[in-house]
């Protein structure tokens, strides 16, 4: 199974830190955020990675190279300066991802989730990892009932930014910018999105304050 790391976001909430450095290369615990994912994916047995990039993306390519020093092979999916949003970015990278289900993880999270759990084909079009709602997102995103993810109907959890998708989820979508969530909600209505709740460590590194907090956690 291949894995994709989403690394094309502009990181507006991280400014001025992201004015000269792409968000995935910001450091916590002395290492770049994206590096934690590359190493965790390699440890879980993933050998073929795809990484999209836009804002200052050349720095990401230069930093990670072909992935050989991590024991993986990395292919890159460059996007226009404005990026293609999550759904569009994945759709654009499908030629590199192939015809089989693939794992996707957001570069701007930190987690100790064991990615090896996701080396399987989802029963439907997608399988999402949900986590407890952080203080900045108390309402959550999706509900989970008997292994199926829904857009409501009960207490909601937060989507972790980790999921497994079948290429068919993106069928009929034109190449261009579009969000992922609407595609998932349509699939949820058909009962085609499974999920799990993870109660381990997970941080949405979306602001300088949360980046600083993660750095303190990793260095103490």
List the helices and strands and how they pair.
Layout: E1 3-6, E2 27-28, E3 31-32, H1 33-43, E4 48-53, H2 57-64, E5 73-78, H3 85-97, E6 102-106, E7 109-111, E8 126-131, E9 142-145, E10 148-150, E11 156-165, H4 181-189, E12 193-198, E13 202-204, H5 208-219
Please explain how this structure is put together:
The chain is α/β, with parallel strands linked by helices and 220 residues long. It has one domain (3-219): Spore Coat Polysaccharide Biosynthesis Protein SpsA, Chain A (Alpha-Beta Complex). It is built from 5 helices and 13 strands. Strands 1, 4, 5, 6, 8, 9, 10, 11 and 12 form a 9-stranded mixed sheet that branches. A hairpin with a 2-residue loop joins strand 9 and strand 10. The protein is globular, with a radius of gyration of 16 Å. The mean pLDDT is 94.
Q: What top-tier CATH class fits best?
A: Alpha Beta
- Give the percentage of residues in beta strands: 25-35%
Based on DSSP secondary structure assignment, what is the total number of beta strands?
13
The major pleated sheet works out as: 9 strands, mixed
Low-confidence stretches: none
What count of structural domains? 1
CATH-defined topology: Spore Coat Polysaccharide Biosynthesis Protein SpsA, Chain A
What is the terminal separation in angstroms?
35 Å
> How are helices and strands ordered from N to C?
EEEHEHEHEEEEEEHEEH
Shape, please? globular
What is the share of helical residues? Answer: 10-25%
CATH-level-4 superfamily name: Spore Coat Polysaccharide Biosynthesis Protein SpsA, Chain A
